[in-house]
């Protein structure tokens, strides 16, 4: 212990004598440690920290999906799984919905979650006030009840502890408050909501009869029995899936391609972000490695000033082990100081990540520093100290008095060895930096392609808001049509409004699918027919969104419920089912109905699955023939659309004062939000690659400066013998260029192998994109040449007389 304390005291004194060196090393390391800690804080929250539920490792999500996407659970599937499985202790379901909330405050459209009565007991969550749901409340004949969040309790009810037993109205139906959830308990697999109801067998806009016909709207949560594995559960689910198809052959999800699988509950939350988190973790690890290499290079340079001290200590009896221990102690002190600064930087970085990337992270997961993060910072700092301190310590410990008393300027073997070590470190830095630079370049190219995509509509000057009518108040289709017709009539005549329309889905998205049987296709059972997106729109929708018609006509007021059924298909649908033919006049059986609909027009393709996804086959139906209570109002204006928000809301209130609106945004904002995730990932990787590039350039500069100092005597002789300064310049720049070129070649080989892992993050850019692989090395080599020029220029200023006199 005394030896350790002595080493710590001596190491602190030595670092204090070289404040400039110490600060440079600490700050360089702190950048790498801070970046790693910030990303690990996110990784810890998303992938490592257990969910705050009872025995979270026993929780699983059960999904029914084909080879394309999750089909959603149906009531019949849930009941079969609940009543006949042997692998799960209990099975619960939930469904996200919206409802108009009235009572105890102004009306608003609120997200709600419909759950089975046992949902909270499966998770092991108990309300802080009141109780959970009863089995009776979870039946159709049961009394409507709700559990509310702590936030709603405090904001809408002022934290009144007598809230239990009070009522709120959801879509005009009174619901009794039976419980208040604890503060801080989140459900990231569900999303953000403040209201929970056990009426999972109901769903806005759909009748109970229709729900039992195979609508996939439920998500399933299950708790494994003790000793049961997911593999065993999945084997049983395969049997139950076959049983479901046999019992419900006419159900839309009875397709043999649909399978049921159980996966860890966490997968449901992080499936979309796990790959990005791993990529960013690898990127910041590279930054830390480069930072360590830079500090190791600094320590090797510092060895030039400490060679006499180390050699004298060696000659006075200090063993090589003692010298290595002392030097490593100094490195550890540097690393720990950097760790403290890095922890502070990571706190700032984590807050920035959460703020800028909030929309890209699963909702409801608290991201912050805990003991696991602090332990990670400590371990990272210690490993970094060993990594960057070991090589210089071994190099210095080999010195002896005779070697050190000779002039280092005469290219001693020790100096040459240190130069080689520094060169290897720089080559590694360049290779790793180029790998990050190519990765960032690929994402930049991909993002550029996304920016250049034509969504198929004109997003400028369009305001949108959601209007969800309560089905209790607007139960009949005629009531729904009358409401929206009157709103459109009023909004269309507002000053500054060009067009107004309604649609069930927002631009860039689709919310409803249906099986279809186009004319000319072989007849097939309902479950085996292809599913396509369907969209209910008002007649002015194509003009409002400026989507051109390629053939036929738009919808009109004459396409009412009593008129023959009509549809408009998009170009993708027409190409798939009637290639090189005129689709107008063709017929399509839509859904379960026996009567086909006539194609009256062909619309240009619009992006209906997001900017990065190919357009899917789609049908447009007139709203009057497919009424829907949850619609989006779209208003095209002559001026910035936000300015007309109040006037539009006033017209909706004039039709129904109790009707709230939600989701007010412009279509430009909607398009921009769809770019948020690739932009966020690109910016992060760009920052890390720029940091790595800067550190590598500093490394090149440092090794060449050291090389010039080591060969000062030789350069002086060359100048004395008549060498031109341009020759000296060329020698030094060539040395730097060769270091950079070696690193670039290694980095290119690594990039050829590793960028394939990024394929899922790229849009219409190959992982071996020629432009990126050509430009990135050229950019790096150009910057490396500049970094080489500065010490080379200094070498040309060597005074031959002074250099020879020093020799």
Strand content: 15-25%
| Separation of the first and last Cα atoms | 45 Å
The average pLDDT value, as a whole number, equals: 85
- As laid out across the biggest beta sheet, the strand order is 2-3-8-5-7-6
**How helix-rich are the residues, as a percent range?**
40-55%
Notes on the structure:
This protein has 807 residues and is of the alpha+beta class. Helix content is 50%, strand content 16%. The chain contains 23 helices and 21 strands. It has a 6-stranded mixed beta barrel with strand order 2-3-8-5-7-6. Strand 2 and strand 3 form a beta hairpin. Helix 3 packs across helix 7 (230-247), helix 10 (320-356) runs antiparallel to helix 11 and helix 13 runs antiparallel to helix 22 (770-795). The protein is globular, with a radius of gyration of 34 Å.
What is the fold's blueprint, element by element?
Blueprint: H1 2-17, H2 19-48, E1 59-65, H3 75-84, E2 88-102, E3 108-115, H4 119-123, E4 129-130, E5 145-148, H5 150-156, E6 167-170, E7 173-180, E8 195-197, H6 208-211, E9 219-224, H7 230-247, E10 259-264, H8 265-270, H9 274-315, H10 320-356, H11 371-397, H12 401-405, H13 413-451, E11 462-468, H14 477-492, E12 497-503, E13 513-518, E14 531-537, H15 541-545, E15 549-552, E16 566-570, H16 571-577, E17 587-590, E18 597-603, E19 618-622, E20 630-637, H17 645-655, E21 662-666, H18 667-674, H19 676-710, H20 712-720, H21 725-754, H22 770-795, H23 800-806
Parallel strand pairs: 3-8, 5-7, 14-19, 16-18
Antiparallel strand pairs: 1-9, 1-10, 2-3, 2-6, 2-9, 4-7, 5-8, 6-7, 11-20, 11-21, 12-20, 13-14, 13-17, 15-18, 16-19, 17-18
Helix pairs in contact: 1-10, 2-9, 2-10, 2-11, 3-7, 9-11, 9-13, 9-19, 10-11, 13-19, 13-21, 13-22, 14-17, 19-21, 19-22, 20-23, 21-22
């Amino acid at each position: 212990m005394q030896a350790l304390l002595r080493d710590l005291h001596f190491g602190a004194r030595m670092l204090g004598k070289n404040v400039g060196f110490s600060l440079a090393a600490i700050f360089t390391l702190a950048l790498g440690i801070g970046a790693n800690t910030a990303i690990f804080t996110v990784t810890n929250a998303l992938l490592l920290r257990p969910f705050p539920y009872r025995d979270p490792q026993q929780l699983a999500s059960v999904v029914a999906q084909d080879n394309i996407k999750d089909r959603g659970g149906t009531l019949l599937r849930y009941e079969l799984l609940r009543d006949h499985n042997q692998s799960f202790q209990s099975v619960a379901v939930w469904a996200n919905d919206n409802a108009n909330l009235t009572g105890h405050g102004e009306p608003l459209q609120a997200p709600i979650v419909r759950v089975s009565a046992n949902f909270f007991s499966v998770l092991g969550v108990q309300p802080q006030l009141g109780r959970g749901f009863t089995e009776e409340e979870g039946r159709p004949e049961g009394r409507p009840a709700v559990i509310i969040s702590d936030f709603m309790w405090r904001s809408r009810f002022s934290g009144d502890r007598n809230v239990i037993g009070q009522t709120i109205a959801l879509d005009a139906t009174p619901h009794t408050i039976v419980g208040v959830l604890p503060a801080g308990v989140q459900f990231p697999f569900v999303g953000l909501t403040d209201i929970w109801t056990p009426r999972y067998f109901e769903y806005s806009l759909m009748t109970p009869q229709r729900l039992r016909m195979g609508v996939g709207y439920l998500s399933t949560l299950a708790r494994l029995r003790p000793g049961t594995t997911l593999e065993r559960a999945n084997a049983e689910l395969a049997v139950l899936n076959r049983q479901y198809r046999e019992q419900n052959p006419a159900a839309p999800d009875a397709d043999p391609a649909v399978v049921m699988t159980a996966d860890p509950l966490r997968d449901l939350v992080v499936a979309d972000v796990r790959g990005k988190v791993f990529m960013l973790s690898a990127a910041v690890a590279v930054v830390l490695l480069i930072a360590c290499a830079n500090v190791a290079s600094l320590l090797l340079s510092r060895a030039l000033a400490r060679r006499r001290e180390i050699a004298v200590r060696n000659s006075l009896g200090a063993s090589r082990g003692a010298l290595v221990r002392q030097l490593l102690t100094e490195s550890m002190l540097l690393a720990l100081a950097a760790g403290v600064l890095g922890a502070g930087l990571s706190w700032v970085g984590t807050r920035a990540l959460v703020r800028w990337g909030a929309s890209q992270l699963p909702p409801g997961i608290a991201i912050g520093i805990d003991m696991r993060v602090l332990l990670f910072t400590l371990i990272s700092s210690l490993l970094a100290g060993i990594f960057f301190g070991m090589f210089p310590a071994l190099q210095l410990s080999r010195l002896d008095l005779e070697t050190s008393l000779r002039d280092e300027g005469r290219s001693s073997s020790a100096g040459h060895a240190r130069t080689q070590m520094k060169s290897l470190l720089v080559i590694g830095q360049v290779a790793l930096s180029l790998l990050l630079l190519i990765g960032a370049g690929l994402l930049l190219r991909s993002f550029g392609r996304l920016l250049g995509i034509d969504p198929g509509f004109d997003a400028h000057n369009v305001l949108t808001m959601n209007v969800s009518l309560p089905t209790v108040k607007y139960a009949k289709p005629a009531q729904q049509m009358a409401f929206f017709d009157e709103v459109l009539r009023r909004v269309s005549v507002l000053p500054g409004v060009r067009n107004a329309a309604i649609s069930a889905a927002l631009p860039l998205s689709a919310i409803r699918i249906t099986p279809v049987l186009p004319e000319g296709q072989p007849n097939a059972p309902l479950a085996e027919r292809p599913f396509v997106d369907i969209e209910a729109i008002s007649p002015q929708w194509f003009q409002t969104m400026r989507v051109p018609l390629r053939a036929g006509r738009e919808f009109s007021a004459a396409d009412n419920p009593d008129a023959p059924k009509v549809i408009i298909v998009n170009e993708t649908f027409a190409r798939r089912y009637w290639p090189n033919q005129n689709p107008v006049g063709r017929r399509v059986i839509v859904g379960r109905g026996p009567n086909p609909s006539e194609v009256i027009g062909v619309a240009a393709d619009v992006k209906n699955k997001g900017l990065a996804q190919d357009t899917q086959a789609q049908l447009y139906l007139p709203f009057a023939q497919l009424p829907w209570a949850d619609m989006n109002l779209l208003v095209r204006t002559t001026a910035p659309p936000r300015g007309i928000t109040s006037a539009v809301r006033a017209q909706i209130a004039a039709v129904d004062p109790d009707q709230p609106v939600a989701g007010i945004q412009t279509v430009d904002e909607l398009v921009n939000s769809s770019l948020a995730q690739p932009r966020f990932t690109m910016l992060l990787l760009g920052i890390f690659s720029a940091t790595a590039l800067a550190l590598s350039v500093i490394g090149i500069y440092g090794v060449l400066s050291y090389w010039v100092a080591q060969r000062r005597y030789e350069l002086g002789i060359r100048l004395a013998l008549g060498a031109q300064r341009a020759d000296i310049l060329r020698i030094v720049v060539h040395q730097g260029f060769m270091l950079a070129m070696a690193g670039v070649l290694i980095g290119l080989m690594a990039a050829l192998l590793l960028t394939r892992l990024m394929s899922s993050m790229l849009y219409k850019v190959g992982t071996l994109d020629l432009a990126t692989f050509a430009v990135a090395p050229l950019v790096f080599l150009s910057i490396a040449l500049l970094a080489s020029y500065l010490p080379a220029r200094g070498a040309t200023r060597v005074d031959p007389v002074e250099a020879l006199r020093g020799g």
